[in-house]
Amino acid sequence: MKKLDYIDGLKGIGALMVYLCHFVFAFYYAAYTLLPEHVNTKSGAEIFIGKTPLNFFYNGNGAVCLFLVFSGFVLCLTYFRTRDRGRLKSGAFKRYFRLMPVILAVNVLIFILMYLGFYQNAETAVLTKSVPWFQGFNQFEPGILSMLYESLLGCFVRGSNDYNGVLWTIPYLFWGALVVYLVAFLVGENPLRYIAYGVMILVALKTDIYFAGIFLGFVLCDFFSTQERLVRLYRRFRLIPLLVFLLGFYLTSYPSIGTELPGTIYGVLPAAYTVIYHIAGAFLLTAGVLGSEDLQRLFSCRPLLYLGRISYSLYLLHFPVTAVFSCWFFLKFQGSIGYGLTVGADFVLTTALVLTLSSLSSRYLEPLGARLWKRGGKA
């Protein structure tokens, strides 16, 4: 069965965006708020960048929406190719074991770092002018029971994220996946299934809009796997997928702060619908790639495939590294070599450390889920 490498490349872009988002928010907060009081450059370049499509590359909310769409797409890809409903049941039962081991391992690491007093984001935030966002993370007395609850149950049921802030997305990746598996199992071969899909998406828009991301990815998977004639027609006009991709890029890059932006490329859009823009953008961006061989080659390049392979571990590990190592380096050197040079060197070293840890995690920790599932099945 042909592997869609470019989907892994897109996942790599999404993981990189989340990492860049948190690093930028920590050290150049004005790139998010667009406020002069948070500027750390003489020229105020952060604000200029934040009002352009360049902010796509550190748009954390847009990245989350991309992750959800990608996840929804790959969940039932094998099912739509084989029509093996057993794959759906197996995927549903394995989902918890797929996600949990790395969450637990990273939270144990965070607990140890907090217990030893290594988190220095509160002190760093004062100097980087990121107090409203960066200062409050992990500023409490860690407890083993609370850490285990968050890792094993809380993040799945309630999105608990006291120890690792990125865990707020886990309910969407967990419950959203289970809903997708169930819907595919019940109506995946029904010719009227797109009506059910529409109802599912409308309910998500009314209740919790982020679920719509994973459901839209699922719809893309069904369409591109089963509607061969329409897909061929869509791909025949090469300009259309490219335009769809560019529109998706534009919407996904809408600044997450969600303020009015007159005089910018976003000035024509009402500010009140930021999440809708990001979810629609993620959907269109993915649809554009699915329809364009040129884009597929671009997102199948080796660096992006590597990032895609380690994307889950990168997503879970980057923030504690930023709050501990990046802050230590900044506090140690910013007084002697200046703000910009310190942050630049800090970014290079932090990136190397994050990639190294994520590679080790993807190689040794992520496979634990499959082993746990196999042992549980045998028992």
What does this structure look like?
This protein is 74% helix and 0% strand. It contains 20 helices and no strands. The protein is mostly helical and 379 residues long. The mean pLDDT is 94. The protein has helices spanning 5-27, 30-33, 45-50, 60-75, 77-82, 85-115, 121-128, 131-134, 144-157, 170-187, 193-207, 210-226, 228-236, 239-252, 274-291, 293-298, 302-309, 311-337, 339-364, 368-378.
SSE topology:
Blueprint lengths: L4 H23 L2 H4 L11 H6 L9 H16 L1 H6 L2 H31 L5 H8 L2 H4 L9 H14 L12 H18 L5 H15 L2 H17 L1 H9 L2 H14 L21 H18 L1 H6 L3 H8 L1 H27 L1 H26 L3 H11 L1
The run of helices and strands is HHHHHHHHHHHHHHHHHHHH
Overall pLDDT score: 94
Number of strands: 0
Please report the number of helical segments. Answer: 20
Beta-strand portion reads: under 5%
Describe, in short, the structure shown:
Helices cover 74% and strands 0% of the residues.
Give short descriptive properties of this protein:
379 residues; mainly alpha; 20 helices
